[in-house]
Design goal:
GO molecular function, one term: metal ion binding
GO biological process, one term: glutathione biosynthetic process
Number of domains: 1
Shape: globular
Protein name: Glutamate--cysteine ligase
CATH architecture: 2-Layer Sandwich
Helix content: 40-55%
Catalytic activity: L-cysteine + L-glutamate + ATP = gamma-L-glutamyl-L-cysteine + ADP + phosphate + H(+)
Largest sheet: 7 strands, antiparallel
Enzyme class: ligase
């Protein structure tokens, strides 16, 4: 254990400061495809009973019209967050008819690209901006890629905790409160980069996919059955090079050694032309918009990262501007697969482990990441997602090749004091228990969820489609057997009605040309002192 981690753990365990660990918030965004009863992609619009996808705070769409996104309020305890997520699912099913929510991260059987509808948010300039951005994603990555689902975990620590740590820094490391908090979150992100391979080994659940997903593109996957491709030792093909990767973003590596360098890199990316996109243009021959720009990325959110520094944005503000103006408020962990064995896609146990893991990342020493170290960390991650369960697999740790099992066990031992600190506040053992449930997975790869998925595939004729549909039906039965309470239904009915009314007001408001709106939006992405 590093000296800094030991000192910070002792500081936060001391009675005057223990309360700051009770703060902080946890939120979850769960993506899930709507499918027909036979497992084929739903062709219907966003369910009217759910409200407006443009303005509803908890039920929206991600990319495709059929790719729903459920967003919980931020809560102080992950068990409460997951309970809220369960409530969203139960309400959603009460308005879903005979459709199902797909249980996997990798999509169900998809129709031709032309038949995958892009999410629609109405005719307002705001709605069209969101829609055209997604048209651009279709051009750049293909529609099939935009039907992948995941779990996003939003995590913050109490601002009072950062003040406690800042007040105990050496005199030569004093920063303003905002600057200290931002740089501390960037330090958390650097440690996450170092250790996130462990999350993919422990919680990856996408070792296989529907063969039609690749649309005939060359690949190095093995054939499991007529409709299923896989890699025998993979943990998360979703997070492999089959996912959100292209030549334009291949050189885009935001420097997370400081907030300034991170913002500068993204600012350049949204303003740097990319020749293949320039050849496509922003409009087709009929003058219809097909992408917001011809730059490396259209907007900041197009940068697909396993973790992001975030700040709640204000009306008319862009993510980069929010970070520049007010600093980092929380981090968004984006690498978790949907757990097909959990009705809501994630368990409380996983959340407890993540809380201990992220607290450890926040408190441990986190030096700057050099370009060489960055390449090593990317290689460790890639090895784990594509062959994490391979016997004898090694990772590069401190310049040496170390068996993944040994590296994982050493990392769990380093995380344990953070779990114990959290449990000391609660007066129970939930975090250390969650940690304890991971060690057997390292000792025996067959106990990982990715191995469990392959066993279930075998029970379903080695068919990804059959397994996915069976799990989706099982989860649907659970939610339909537990409809929302009268109070829950009233709460979500009100949100739906308010969202529809809000969109109607937006749609009816006078508006200028969309071309001018896009021009103004693109011109607003610069922060002070950024090029």
């Amino acid at each position: 254990m590093s000296t800094l981690l030991t000192r910070r753990l002792a500081l936060l365990a001391a009675e005057p400061h223990r309360a700051v660990l009770r703060g902080g918030l946890r939120g979850i965004e769960r993506e899930t495809l709507r499918v027909q009863p036979d497992g084929q992609l739903a062709r219907t619009p966003h369910p009217a009973g759910w409200g407006s996808a443009l303005t509803h705070p908890e039920i929206t769409t991600d990319y495709a019209e059929a790719l729903a996104e459920f967003i919980t309020p931020a809560e102080g305890d992950i068990a409460t967050t997951i309970d809220k997520l369960d409530g969203i699912h139960r309400y959603a099913y009460s308005k879903l008819g005979d459709e199902l929510l797909w249980s996997q991260s990798m999509p169900a059987a998809l129709p031709a690209e032309a038949d995958i509808a892009i999410a629609w948010y109405g005719p307002s300039n705001l709605g069209m901006l969101k829609h055209v951005y997604r048209r651009g994603l279709a051009v750049r990555y293909g529609k099939a890629m935009q039907c992948i689902a995941g779990i996003h975990y939003n995590y913050s620590l109490d601002e009072a905790l950062w003040r406690v740590l800042a007040d105990n820094e050496p005199a030569d490391r004093k920063l303003s409160r905002t600057a200290y908090q931002s740089e501390a979150y960037l330090a958390l992100i650097r440690n996450f980069r170092r250790h996130s391979w462990l999350l993919m080994y422990l919680f990856g659940t996408s070792p296989a996919l529907n063969s039609g997903f690749l649309r005939g593109k060359p690949h190095k996957l093995d054939t499991l059955s007529a409709d299923t491709l896989y890699l025998p030792f993979a943990t998360s093909l979703r997070m492999s090079d089959l996912g959100y990767q292209n030549d334009a973003q291949s050189g885009l590596r935001p420097h997370e050694n400081s907030l300034d360098s991170y913002v500068a890199t993204l600012t350049r990316a949204v303003n740097q032309p990319y020749e293949p996109y320039r050849k496509i243009g922003t409009k087709d021959a009929n003058g219809e918009w097909i992408q917001l720009s011809t730059n490396v990325i259209q907007i900041e959110n197009e940068y697909y990262s396993t973790i992001r520094p975030k700040r709640v944005i204000r009306t008319g503000e862009r993510p980069i501007q929010a970070l520049c103006n007010r600093g980092v408020q929380y981090v968004e962990v984006r690498c978790l697969d949907v757990d097909p064995f959990e009705p809501v896609g994630v368990s409380v146990t996983t959340g407890r482990f993540l809380d201990a893991f992220l607290l450890f990342c926040a408190l441990d020493d986190s030096p700057a990441i050099s370009e060489l170290e960055g390449e090593v960390l990317a290689r460790n991650f890639a090895r784990t997602v594509k062959e994490g369960r391979r016997p004898g697999l090694t990772l590069t740790v401190d310049g040496r090749e170390v068996p993944l099992r040994d590296a994982g066990e050493a990392l769990l031992a380093r995380i344990r004091p953070a779990a114990e600190l959290l449990d000391g506040l609660r007066g129970d053992t939930q975090h250390t228990d969650a940690l304890g449930q991971q060690a057997p997975k390292l000792a025996d790869p067959e106990r990982t969820p990715s191995a469990a998925v392959l066993r279930e595939l075998a029970r379903h004729g080695n068919s990804f489609a059959a397994f996915g549909l069976a799990q989706s039906e099982q989860h649907a039965a659970y939610f339909r057997a537990h409809p929302p309470t009268t109070e829950e239904a009233a709460y979500f009915d009100k949100l739906a009605q308010q969202s529809v009314a809000e969109q109607a007001e937006i749609d009816a408001a006078p508006r200028g040309s969309f071309d001018d709106y896009v021009k103004a939006y693109r011109a607003s992405n610069l922060c002070p002192n950024q090029v």
